[in-house]
């Protein structure tokens, strides 16, 4: 392992990426240090007071931490954008040394978050509260963190939980509750230790995401470097999955690893792992219908009835379905894979529900997540628009408009996802593109969305042979999304001056990636080995 790290470090030096590595790491370190004054800190029992550092949490101390935090975010985004332009300029070959170099870069940027306070969200405290509820013998599907209090006594953990979720049941699956109960049992209700264990779990999941993203690209014969750039080195992923410690990290990691296994033709194992991801958060279930298409494509390939083609040819070739297999045989394969996958998923979910004693209460609890309102989703935008238009004519209240908009958009969401699933069925590459579009539809038309929801897409979108314009758009949107939540977890989307400033940053990143580095011919000869993809604008 030490030799591999040394080789990867030497490759970073050869590719002239070391300045990016250390400046990006400095950004992560600034964020982590600033988090203790500006982040989503502990309501009581912080270790800052005994060290006489509690002044960092208010007044000028907190303002200083906020400047340091956003300076670190800008450093991280800036060096991520520089890395992207470097890759666009040099078109490096996908070899073991180069991929290992980007893996090492991603890990180096990730390490400083180990010492960070929770940032951009207080969800980790909700997770620990849910584990405490389960450990007490109650069900987090029936009661919220308020049950942890006793007459005349409010527990510190309850105060740490965001006000939005103190009386709300959990919408998460049985594996999530089982893991949180285990962490609470290990730490014996020690909040700091519990947060640290969740942080370690999220970092381990990020390592899994890094492996899975480049392995998916390898199976699709696309660029592992762009897969790592979109997933492992992406500031949005680092800030929210590790800094914010969302259980999205575990769900996304399991889903991505499952997809990687399916692409390696380990279909049953892949479906099982994806189901584990769904047992964290039900969103991962959306991947399973697309896995059916990948499995069917492999069956046809094994039967030597599917033409062998490059990833781009597979997507564009409209004749790949004109095989010698009979219609009945194809239908038989479809029924067998769909039913087999469904039975396996149901069995795994049933075992987890029984093992953790949670049942299926999370299905009813999903409705509680709609209480949060922000305009990252189309229903909320529509509700604001309808309410504004009807304000002078005694129109519907915002609450009524929101309920109606959410119902309509839920219907639209179902109408869109089904045709996407049917259309993107020809090849594994097409299936994953369809999955990415389905997740995008879900993010846009769902009752609510948060910036970290886009990790569902980012974990594999870089492996989909995107053109230069698509990569620039992804970079701009990710950069903008890094500023939509304040370090203490408060949504910043209704501070319109702040939103405009974030949009300006996104535009700058988009334009920056439109230009290649000025490089001498000698540098190009040394670095540019071959162009694996045609990045056209």
From TrEMBL:
<keyword id="KW-1133">Transmembrane helix</keyword>
<feature type="transmembrane region" description="Helical">
    <location>
        <begin position="191"/>
        <end position="212"/>
    </location>
</feature>
<feature type="transmembrane region" description="Helical">
    <location>
        <begin position="434"/>
        <end position="454"/>
    </location>
</feature>
<feature type="transmembrane region" description="Helical">
    <location>
        <begin position="372"/>
        <end position="393"/>
    </location>
</feature>
<feature type="transmembrane region" description="Helical">
    <location>
        <begin position="399"/>
        <end position="422"/>
    </location>
</feature>
<feature type="transmembrane region" description="Helical">
    <location>
        <begin position="249"/>
        <end position="264"/>
    </location>
</feature>
<dbReference type="InterPro" id="IPR049829">
    <property type="entry name" value="MptA/B-like"/>
</dbReference>
<keyword id="KW-0812">Transmembrane</keyword>
<comment type="similarity">
    <text>Belongs to the MptA/B family.</text>
</comment>
<keyword id="KW-0328">Glycosyltransferase</keyword>
<feature type="transmembrane region" description="Helical">
    <location>
        <begin position="493"/>
        <end position="513"/>
    </location>
</feature>
<dbReference type="Pfam" id="PF26314">
    <property type="entry name" value="MptA_B_family"/>
</dbReference>
<feature type="transmembrane region" description="Helical">
    <location>
        <begin position="271"/>
        <end position="296"/>
    </location>
</feature>
<protein>
    <recommendedName>
        <fullName>Alpha-(1-&gt;6)-mannopyranosyltransferase A</fullName>
    </recommendedName>
</protein>
<keyword id="KW-0808">Transferase</keyword>
<feature type="transmembrane region" description="Helical">
    <location>
        <begin position="224"/>
        <end position="243"/>
    </location>
</feature>
<dbReference type="GO" id="GO:0016757">
    <property type="term" value="F:glycosyltransferase activity"/>
</dbReference>
<keyword id="KW-0472">Membrane</keyword>
<feature type="transmembrane region" description="Helical">
    <location>
        <begin position="58"/>
        <end position="78"/>
    </location>
</feature>
<feature type="transmembrane region" description="Helical">
    <location>
        <begin position="20"/>
        <end position="38"/>
    </location>
</feature>
<feature type="transmembrane region" description="Helical">
    <location>
        <begin position="99"/>
        <end position="120"/>
    </location>
</feature>
<feature type="transmembrane region" description="Helical">
    <location>
        <begin position="330"/>
        <end position="352"/>
    </location>
</feature>
<dbReference type="GO" id="GO:0016020">
    <property type="term" value="C:membrane"/>
</dbReference>
């Amino acid at each position: 392992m030490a030799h591999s790290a040394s080789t990867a470090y030497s490759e970073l030096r050869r590719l002239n990426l070391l300045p990016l590595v250390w400046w990006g790491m400095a950004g992560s370190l600034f964020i982590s240090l600033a988090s203790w004054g500006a982040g989503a800190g502990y309501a009581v029992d912080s270790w800052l007071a005994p060290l006489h550092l509690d002044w960092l949490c208010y007044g000028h101390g907190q303002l200083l931490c906020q400047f340091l935090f956003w300076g670190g975010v800008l450093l991280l985004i800036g060096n991520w954008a520089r890395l992207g332009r470097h890759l666009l300029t040099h078109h490096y070959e996908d070899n073991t040394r180069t991929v290992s170099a980007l893996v090492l870069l991603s890990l180096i940027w990730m390490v400083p978050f180990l010492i960070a306070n929770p940032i951009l969200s207080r969800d980790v405290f909700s997770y620990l509260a849910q584990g405490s509820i389960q450990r007490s013998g109650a069900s987090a599907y029936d009661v919220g963190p308020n049950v942890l209090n006793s007459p005349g006594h409010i527990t510190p953990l309850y105060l740490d939980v965001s006000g939005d979720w103190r009386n709300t049941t959990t919408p998460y699956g049985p594996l999530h509750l089982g893991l949180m109960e285990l962490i609470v049992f290990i730490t014996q209700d020690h909040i700091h230790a519990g947060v640290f264990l969740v942080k370690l779990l999220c970092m381990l999941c990020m390592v899994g995401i890094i492996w899975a993203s480049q392995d998916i690209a390898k199976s699709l014969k696309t660029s592992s470097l762009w897969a790592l750039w979109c997933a492992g080195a992406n500031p949005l992923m680092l800030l929210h999955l590790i800094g914010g410690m969302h259980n999205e990290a575990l769900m996304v990691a399991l889903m991505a690893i499952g997809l990687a296994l399916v692409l390696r033709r380990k279909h049953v194992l892949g479906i099982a792992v994806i189901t584990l991801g769904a047992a964290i958060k039900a969103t991962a279930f959306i991947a399973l219908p697309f896995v059916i298409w990948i499995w069917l494509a492999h069956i046809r390939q094994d039967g030597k009835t599917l033409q062998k083609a490059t990833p781009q040819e597979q997507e564009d070739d409209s004749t790949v379905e004109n095989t010698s297999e009979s219609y009945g045989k194809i239908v038989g394969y479809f029924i067998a894979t769909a039913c087999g996958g469904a039975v396996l998923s149901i069995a795994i979910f049933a075992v987890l529900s029984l093992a953790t004693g949670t049942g299926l209460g999370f299905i009813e609890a999903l409705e509680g997540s709609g209480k949060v309102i922000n305009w990252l989703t189309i229903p909320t935008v529509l509700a604001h628009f309808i309410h504004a238009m009807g304000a002078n004519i005694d129109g519907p209240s915002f609450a009524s408009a929101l309920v109606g908009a959410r119902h309509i958009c839920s219907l639209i969401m179902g109408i869109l996802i089904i045709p996407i699933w049917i259309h993107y069925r020809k090849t594994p590459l097409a299936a994953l593109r369809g999955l990415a579009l389905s997740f995008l539809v879900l993010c846009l038309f769902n009752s609510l969305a948060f910036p970290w929801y886009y990790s569902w897409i980012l974990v594999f979108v870089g492996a989909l042979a995107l053109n230069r314009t698509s990569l620039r758009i992804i970079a701009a949107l990710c950069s903008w999304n890094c500023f939509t939540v304040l370090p203490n977890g408060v949504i910043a989307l209704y501070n319109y001056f702040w939103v405009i400033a974030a949009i300006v940053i996104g535009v700058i990143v988009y334009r920056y990636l439109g230009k290649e580095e000025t490089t001498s011919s000698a540098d190009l000869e040394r670095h540019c080995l071959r162009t694996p993809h045609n990045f056209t604008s």
